[in-house]
């Protein structure tokens, strides 16, 4: 019973630095306290995002939570306890979500690289029944970011889009949502040569090999460019008149639309039918899942910037 457990296993760091130097296994971390609006989750799987290593390197020290901390925004698992105000979930429910309300402001001290984590119910959704825990954990932060970015451009059926970084965690979902949820007229996306086939499989009509072609020099222009790489200036050269550039890579500059995702379980609930019908699929890097014991290796791999889809940690014992 979770209520009898006082300490849990987790990966934590006590100082900022690269994962190989600072991330350590800790068998005795106090179990997170559950607030009234939170659920305690027995973690089954976690996925890593670039923000995890940026935070670990101290990129937003001033607004970070105190160290030591266990990293991990994305989780899937089973609810083992609920706070008094929780209405949507009960003990035994399978859930998934991005557990941090605001990515850069006081993320949870105990993240998802832990046996148990706690999160507000508004950040969580029921796990799609057809997905494994590893698949579900791969989704929240990236698919919510993809959806939020498309919404902020006012994306709708019949519009065209160019996705910069189509093979990454976010890009793989921008392609799928634009094509299979919004009904884009045309989806173009960039990647290196070996990943072009994946882009097509996800729904890209025009995969562009950035090692051979400059997307900004192509004659075709787009209603929206979604920048997941940090090429905002060039993105404007690929835009139709009146089109919009959305970027998720800081700093972003006007007139591009830049945002930092506020986590929101309602987006996941909204997308669950598309995940359950198989129209939108999780994309796990071929090296995934990494077992819990290889969390440092998983970080090192994500830090190369070459992951395809998501780096997932599973099982978490
Ligand atoms: N603002 C927000 O709320 C928010 C939310 C999520 C993510 N982000 C940020 O967005 C960025 C992407 O996140 P992510 O999770 O998608 O990262 P990721 O999964 O680590 O992205 C890796 C992918 O990027 C591709 N890539 C790298 N350089 C490229 C280039 N010049 N052109 C095309 N593709 C390129 C790589 O493909 P190749 O090997 O083919 O190059 C690789 O597949 C990160 O900086 C992250 O911190 C921000």
UniProtKB/TrEMBL annotation:
Domain Enoyl reductase (ER) positions? 18-313
Q: What is a GO molecular function of this protein?
A: oxidoreductase activity, acting on the CH-CH group of donors, NAD or NADP as acceptor
Q: Which CDD domains match?
A: MDR_like_2 (cd05289)
Per its UniProt record, what Gene3D superfamilies does this chain match?
A: Medium-chain alcohol dehydrogenases, catalytic domain, NAD(P)-binding Rossmann-like Domain
Source superkingdom: Eukaryota
* Keywords per UniProt: NAD, Oxidoreductase
Q: Which family does it belong to?
A: Belongs to the zinc-containing alcohol dehydrogenase family. Quinone oxidoreductase subfamily.
Q: Which PANTHER family match?
A: CYTOSOLIC ALKENAL_ONE OXIDOREDUCTASE, NADPH-DEPENDENT ALKENAL/ONE OXIDOREDUCTASE, CHLOROPLASTIC
This chain belongs to which protein, by name?
Enoyl reductase (ER) domain-containing protein
């Amino acid at each position: 019973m979770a209520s009898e457990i006082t300490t849990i296993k987790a990966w934590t760091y006590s100082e900022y630095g690269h994962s190989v130097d600072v991330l350590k296994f800790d068998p005795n971390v106090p179990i997170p306290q559950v607030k009234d609006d939170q659920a305690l989750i027995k973690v089954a799987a976690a996925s890593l995002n670039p923000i995890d290593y940026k935070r670990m390197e101290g990129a937003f020290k001033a607004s970070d939570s105190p160290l030591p901390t266990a990293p991990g925004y994305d989780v899937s698992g089973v609810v083992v306890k609920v706070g008094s105000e929780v209405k949507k979930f009960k003990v035994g429910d399978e859930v998934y979500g991005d557990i941090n309300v605001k990515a850069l402001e006081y993320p949870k001290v105990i993240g998802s690289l832990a046996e148990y984590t706690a999160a507000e119910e508004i950040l969580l959704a029921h796990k799609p029944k057809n997905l494994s825990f590893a698949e579900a954990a791969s989704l929240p932060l990236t698919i919510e970011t993809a959806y939020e970015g498309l919404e902020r451009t006012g994306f709708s059926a019949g519009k065209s889009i160019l996705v910069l970084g189509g093979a990454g965690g976010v890009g793989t979902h921008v392609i799928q949502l634009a094509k299979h949820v919004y009904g884009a007229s045309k989806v173009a996306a960039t990647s290196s040569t070996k990943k072009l086939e994946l882009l097509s499989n996800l729904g890209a009509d025009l995969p562009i090999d950035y090692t051979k072609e400059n997307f900004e020099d192509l004659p075709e222009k787009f209603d929206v460019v979604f920048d997941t790489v940090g090429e905002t200036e060039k993105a404007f050269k690929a835009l139709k008149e009146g089109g919009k550039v959305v970027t998720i890579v800081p700093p972003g500059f006007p007139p591009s639309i830049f945002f930092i995702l506020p986590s929101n379980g309602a987006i996941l609930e909204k997308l669950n039918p598309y995940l359950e019908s198989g129209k939108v699929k999780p994309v796990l890097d071929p090296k995934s899942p990494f077992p819990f014991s290889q969390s440092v290796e998983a970080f090192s791999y994500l830090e190369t910037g070459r992951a395809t889809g998501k780096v997932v940690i599973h099982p978490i014992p």
